[in-house]
Design a protein that fits this description.
This protein is mainly alpha-helical. The chain has 13 helices and 6 strands. The radius of gyration is 19 Å and the shape is globular.
């Protein structure tokens, strides 16, 4: 009976976030259109104007699911407060960037502050578990790494949103992998956070997949990245998360190493371009950053749907490797 009740609470948590986001995103779409906060879908021949800042709908759903979680799991107050505060702080930075473009250095700097709620509320364990080695003791280094980890996670997600549905789809896969890992390792805190995030992500994917009806904006990508980073840290799933994040990490590393500094996408040539037949091709411009999208398209042009599908496949492969990593932690 108790086990069935726990499953029911998890189901309520998942469905509440999904339902609220699913209902709120159309409202956000309409509002963004009326305010003129739209952006061109550059991988379509007619370049339709798509409402931006859809991440607001994700945050509304996530906030709702966390409030529901506080009612269902009252003993998890500090954990849930740290998780939500971290996510919302990154979301505020994203909103600032959407409304008033931040410099390439200012945005990652401000996202460092998103890690402070975890430090202040003490919702972390400095005894990092490593494969084969087991638990380590990083009482001094680990807290210093938390703001950096949140900033890296949020900006890595922000940098890998090249095609319709890629950011929301890959993040849904990462969240699902973390949920499976948390359930296997019986990390209840991580399960609650994953379920709270997965519902809004799946709802957003319904609107963001090809052909996108709404874009997340930085308010979405930064906050989702911070939420995943917070889940990994608070839920003690750091190593599994790093493996699951591998496509995003590779994309950020190659892009930054190519340009040699922090950069805004608006400042550099596009790594891919649209052909007359509607397919997408990798650019030959040496000044353009080497991104995962450019590498995927280097062998030849693909439709946007095909390219987005390959991103999901790569994320799935990383997810499988993350699950193998999980077994090494047992």
């Amino acid at each position: 009976m108790n086990e069935s009740y726990e499953y029911l609470k998890f189901l309520i948590l998942l469905s509440s976030g999904f339902l609220v986001s699913f209902l709120s995103i159309p409202v956000v779409m309409k509002k963004m259109k009326s305010l003129g906060i739209v952006g061109p879908d550059v991988h379509k021949r007619n370049r339709p104007l798509i409402p931006e800042m859809g991440g607001i709908g994700v945050l509304v759903g996530l906030s709702t699911s966390i409030l529901v979680a506080l009612l269902l799991f009252p003993d998890k107050v500090f954990v849930l407060e740290a998780f939500l505060a971290t996510t919302l702080t990154a979301g505020i930075v994203g909103a600032l960037d959407d409304l008033k473009t931040l410099s390439p250095k200012m945005k990652p700097f401000l996202t460092l502050f998103a890690g402070l709620p975890i430090l202040v509320l003490g919702t972390y364990d400095p005894h990092l578990a490593l494969p084969i080695i087991g638990k380590t003791r990083l009482t001094i280094i680990y807290p210093l790494m938390i703001p950096i980890a949140i900033a890296v996670a949020s900006n890595a997600i922000n940098m890998m949103d090249p095609f319709n549905g890629v950011m929301s789809g890959t993040c849904s896969i990462i969240t699902l992998i973390l949920l499976i890992t948390a359930a296997f390792l019986q990390h209840t805190d991580a399960m609650i956070m994953c379920l709270g995030l997965l519902g809004p992500l799946l709802a957003f994917y319904c609107f963001n997949k090809y052909p996108s009806k709404i874009f997340s904006g930085d308010i979405g990508s930064l906050s989702i990245g911070a939420a995943l980073g917070a889940t990994a840290i608070i839920g003690r799933l750091e190593i599994v998360a790093v493996v699951a994040f591998m496509p995003q990490i590779m994309n950020a590393f190659f892009g930054l190493s190519t340009i040699g500094k922090l950069y805004e996408r608006r400042e550099v040539p596009r790594p891919v371009y649209l052909l007359e037949d509607g397919r997408i091709m990798a650019t030959e411009d040496r000044k353009a950053p080497i991104t995962l999208a450019r590498m995927i398209l280097a062998r030849g042009p693909l439709t946007e749907q095909e390219a987005a599908h390959l991103f999901l496949v790569l994320s799935g492969i990383s997810g499988v490797l993350a699950l193998f990593t999980m077994y090494l932690l047992v």
